[in-house]
Amino acid sequence: MELSTRIRGILDGGDDGWGVYYKARAMKAAGVDVTELTIGEHDIRTDPSILKAMYDAAMGGHTGYVDVPGTPSLRDAVAQRVEHQTHVPTTRRNVLITPGGQAALFAAHMAACDDGDTALFIDPHYTTYPGTIRSVGAKAMAIPARSRDGFQPDLDAVRRAAKGAKSLLINTPNNPTGVIYTDDTLQGLAQVCRDEDLWLISDEVYDSQVWHGAHLSPRALPGMAERTLVVGSMSKSHAMTGSRLGWIIGPDEAIAHLATLSINTNYGVAGFIQDAALFALRQGPGFEAKIAAPFRRRRDAATPLFSGQEAARLIPSDGAMYLMVDIRATGLSGEEFALRLLDDEHIAVMPGESFGHAAAGHVRIAMTIDDDRFLDAVERLIEFANTLTAGDTQ
C-alpha cells in the first residue's frame, strides 16, 4: 500500500537537517566526551515545586478527561499573562491549550490555510516550520532574512511574496538567530498582513528571554488582534520542555473552531500537567526571570570573546537561548564547519543550514551548559575558526 502524498511530502524530499546532532549523540553513546551546544534544552530541570504540583494533581485524581480547550483556570491564567504583557484584552475565550508549542503551530496553520494555499515563513527558521506547513496541505514559501541586515525580515520581499498567500509565520525573539524584530519591522509586517489579508502566526515561545530592547507582540498592533494567532509555551519560560504544554491565542471564533480540531486530534492535555502549568504561572514574572537568567549571563560573558577577530563573527543576540555565528570567513559551509568542529574539538553546534538557506555559512550555539564549560567551548570554537582562516591564507 502506498502512503499519502501529504505524509511522504513533509520533508519535501530532503532530510531534517539534524545530521550533526545525530552524529554527536552517536559519539557520546560510544563513550566520546562531547560538549553539546545543539538543542534548546535547559541545563536545569523542571523546578521541583512544579513537579510536586504535578504529582499532587495526579495523586489527587486529575488523571481523567478534561475540558478539551483546557481547564478554565489555566486558560484564565494564560489570558492574564498575555494581557499583562501586551495590554490587549484577553479572556479564556481567546485561549486554547495544546500539547506543546509544536502542536499549536500545526493547529494554527490548520486554522489559517486550506489545501494548496501558500503559507509564508521567514528564513532562518525553526527547523519544523516548512514541514508543519506541508503537513496541513499548504505550500511552504520561505522569505530570506539576510545576515547583512541583522536577520531582520526584508519588508519589500515579504510584500512581494504576500500576493495571493494566506498566512505569514514569524518568530521573535528568534530561533536560531537570537534577533528581536524591531518595532518598525513588526509594524511593516502588520501592514502587509492588513493590506494583503493574511493571517499572521506569531511564534512567541521565547518572549521571556529578552536581553536587549523589548518584545512586542504583533497582536497588540492596530487591526491585528482579529488576524493574529499567537503560539506560546511553558517549555522555554518555565523549563518544562517535556511536559508538552502550549497554547494558541486568537480571536474567539478561531479558538472555538480550533477546540473542535483538538477534539478530533489530541483530545486535550492531561489535567495534572495543566495543574502544574497553572502552579508555575502563578509564581509570576520573577520565576520566569530566574529561568532566563543563566542564558542572559552566558550571553553577556560570551559576547566580548568575539571581539578583535573576524573568523567567527557574532550576530548580536538580543533574545532567546542561542548565539548565531557567521563563519563564512573560514571558507566552509555551516555544516562543514560543524562537522569538523565535532571531529577535531568534540564540540557539537548546529549548522546554520539546518535552519534554512539564509543561515548558510553560520552556526548556532545553544547556551545550555554550565557557564565555565560554555565559555571554554566558545573560546575553542573561535580559536578553531581562526586556525582555519589562518590556514587558508598561508
From TrEMBL:
Annotated ranges, domain Aminotransferase class I/classII large: 33-381
Organism phylogeny: Bacteria, Pseudomonadati, Pseudomonadota, Alphaproteobacteria, Rhodobacterales
GO biological process: amino acid metabolic process
Gene3D superfamilies on file: Aspartate Aminotransferase, domain 1, Type I PLP-dependent aspartate aminotransferase-like (Major domain)
GO-annotated molecular function: L-aspartate:2-oxoglutarate aminotransferase activity; pyridoxal phosphate binding
Protein name in the entry: Aminotransferase
Top EC class of this enzyme: transferase
EC numbers on record: 2.6.1.-
Family: Belongs to the class-I pyridoxal-phosphate-dependent aminotransferase family.
Top-level taxon in the UniProt lineage: Bacteria
Family annotation (Pfam families): Aminotran_1_2
Cofactor: pyridoxal 5'-phosphate
Keyword field: Aminotransferase, Pyridoxal phosphate, Pyruvate, Transferase
Catalytic activity: L-aspartate + 2-oxoglutarate = oxaloacetate + L-glutamate
